[in-house]
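User: Hey, quick favor. My workstation is busy. Could you predict this chain's structure for me?
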Amino acid sequence: MVSAKRDSSSGGSGGRDEEEEKEGGGISNGYIYNMLKKRLKVRIFEDVFSADTIPASLLQQRGGGGGGGGKVCIVNLSKADDAGTHFIALHILPEKIVIYDSLHLNLNLFSPALWKHLKRSKKSLVSGMKYPLQTVQSQFCGFYCIYFTLYLAKRQFANRQGLVNFYKQECEENDSIVIKNIRTLIKRNVK
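Assistant: No problem, here it is.
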């Protein structure tokens, strides 16, 4: 589903300069990192990680961070030494971790390494999704994560005028909606 070339030094994308790597159609860790951290300077965004490289200190943090909005990281369900598969967003709050997965997968089955890592935080794990937004054929999971991050950065991206609701049934249409919504949030909130 995605290209997830890793930075072996820290497990995260940590300042990589590549704009986009397309191997099989998806977007890379570096593209997501550059978009959220460097170009848009999203204050609540931390980094992009592999399932087994999220720092325990990030998952266990209790402070509000980002102006009271917690922290967001994007995680590939694969381990660092495996090919990338699927991106999800984690909203890390003082007492819980909210999981935003556009495919609405059971993480315990699809990424046991990530599930084990999250359980060690001793926080409540909650799904931020009621139903899937994308089809399994879609390669837009990274774009959904960018959207989730911008949407969660409510103080920085406060103008929500013009956002389009996602379809519950016709998930194929949601890929174009997520791109429109990202553009709308950027256009209305970034000067």
